[in-house]
Amino acid sequence: MLARQGARRWVAPLEMDRSAIATLLGTQPAGMESEVFAWGRMPLAFSARCMTARNRNLPKDDCQFSCIDYPDGLIMDTREQQAFLVLNGIQTQSARCCNLVLALPDMADLGIDVLRISPQARDTLEVVAAFDKVRRGEWQPAHAAHVLEPLAPGGSCDGFWSGQPGMERSGALEAAL
Q1: Where does the pLDDT of residue 23 fall: very low under 50, low under 70, confident under 90, or very high at 90 and above?
Q2: pTM of the model as a whole
Q3: CA–CA distance from 54 to each of 43, 57, 75, 80, 90 (Å)?
């Protein structure tokens, strides 16, 4: 229906696993592109209020651009002192960085057209280059995962892709690191 109305691309929800994406791709209309979030802190919630300013008890009409002090967001820990969420302006994001570089060959086989790489304060060009080297066959995905790990603020995860909680690491990602 959306393709008939002029839609040209659909973006898989972050929490959709590989199996569900594959099922949808099997019914994808001709000419419709598919996109998967492949790198970055996962956006989990949005607010009308800047949560970074709220954390500093600043009024919403005088945020003082608090986010400038936290270019990759403000980490929120659990009571056990484990990084859990990141406040980044009006976004609440995952503390770990989604890294689906190991899934690139599988995504190509499935027919996924576009990968979304979310920018970060540092090293975004290096992240794009690593994904591109895997895409062109210059690097093995496991090598890229190892190279990318130090570039992932908060460490990496790939749980949603394999049907696990999003902040988890699959056995393949754990082995590559």
Answers
A1: very high
A2: 0.87
A3: 18, 5, 14, 23, 10
What is the per-residue burial (b if ≥16 Cβ within 10 Å, else e) of 15-51?
ebebeebeeebeeeeeeeebebbbbbbbbeeeeeebb
* Closest-CA residue to 160 (of 26, 72, 43, 58): 43
Q: How far apart are CA 33 and CA 23, in angstroms?
A: 15
Burial of 71 by CB count in 10 Å (0-12 exposed, 13-18 middle, 19+ buried)? exposed
What are the backbone angles phi and psi of residue 107, rounded to the nearest 5°? -60, -40
Pairwise CA distance, residues 170 & 61, whole Å:
43
End-to-end CA distance of the chain: 42
> For the chain, how long is the longest CA-to-CA vector?
51
Amino acid at 158: D
Confidence of residue 71 (pLDDT cuts 50, 70, 90): confident
Q: Hunting for tokens 């394999």 — which residue is that?
A: 162
